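ok here's 2-methylcitrate dehydratase, seq below lol
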Amino acid sequence: MIEHHVRVHTSADRLPREDQLAWKLAAVATATGELDADSVTMAVNRVIDNAAVAVASLLRRPVAVARAQAVAHRGAAPGASVFGTSVRTSPEWAAWANGTAVRELDFHDTYLAADYSHPGDNIPPLLAVAQHTGGTGADLLRGIIAAYEIHVALVKGICLHKHRIDHVAHLSAATACGLGALLRLPTETVYQAVQQAVHTTTATRQSRKGEISSWKAYAPAFAGKAAIEAVDRAMRGENSPSPIYEGEDGFLAWMLDGPAADYTVLLPEPDEPRRAILDTYTKEHSAEYQAQAIIDLARRLREKIPAPDHVRSVVLHTSHHTHHVIGSGANDPQKYDPTASRETLDHSVPYIFAVALQDGAWHHERSYAPERARRPETVELWQKITTVEDPEWTRRYHDPDPDRRAFGGRAVITLADGSVIEDQLAVADAHPAGARPFDRPAYARKFRTLAENAVAPDGQDRFLSAAEHLAELSAPDLDGLFPAVDTEAVAAYDASLPKGLF
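and the structure came out like this:
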């Protein structure tokens, strides 16, 4: 790996483009050659994972709204497919609809380091452009692996959340790079696209704070759509704000650490295998990633507690990120509100722990149902749960060794009689270092479970076969990556929604 030191420069410095981070990212993407076999295997897993969570969300309102907007923008042929329909639309709008479907349930892959990320959000825009441009499965894989490489590098090297900048700024840069690799574009073109994408997708983290709205699902889809538009514009020969990262009025100087900003971003050598995708991990449960191990811990603790109503208090000792983002350290009263939105409950580890402790299970719909959140005994237990930051868990969260990195915590439960029960879990059971790491059969089971009410068994088989042979798929065969669903039921749901402009 090469260490790239990134700092703010004045305009008078005339920083050469080859020394700019955007160029270096573009150079890595455009130099992506023969693909690592393990990375290809994992990329296939993530294509399966994305389709699983997308088909499970088709009849959810935010997904239906995004789909309706996309269908209204049927553009130049051949276009790209939209989950839940037989329609092909402009690739940027297909990316918008499909990206929202993938993100809605907060149920696909994650990577956590200096910042947060869901690298699987790169796949919908890449797949849309591959379909529209006649790309093959091998082209798509090259784009996915390049996008993951860039995304992980940025998340490791540059923290956004400290400055309350949403993590989709890193996503848009990664998607632009992935599109460059997929299309085999010149480095110059990708460089310009990265700069426009970052410039137009920098937003605050209010989308994940307080009363969290459905924009949480739309935000990554917006970044993917913006990246496609940035690539299109750059391919037509247009330039972008430069240098977007290092400029004295740029991203680092005014959005992040200021004029003294200094970051180190690790990127692979030109001939080094692109394996960053192997550092990422998916979810077994539909919840914020920092809650994955907490759910598994709660399920385990349930067997040690006489009854949930015997609990006097629960204190979760965990990392800074978990405490301040989804714990009581966020100081969001909405995280304890029984009438809160699903998106808010998904970011409330006190709620998640309470339900998992009572039910001994977690379900992507039932665990968030309004009647479940308002159950009196749940509300009573929920209010007794708090989090605290433990420096040791924060250190483990940021451990440079992925085999020692931990995203869980320690639960201290005080019962009504004063006795105390303690237990801890470092990583989720499904994590690569967990009790039951996800493998290809696990991804297939997740797909079949989530697709059970949306895709017929033979349709499930056809999709899994297409995904597992992704590297050999021709351009027309990419259609097989969209499981066949009951489009009439989807259309009927869509017709019930209010109309917009389009």
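fwiw The chain is about 45% helix and 10% strand. kinda neat tbh
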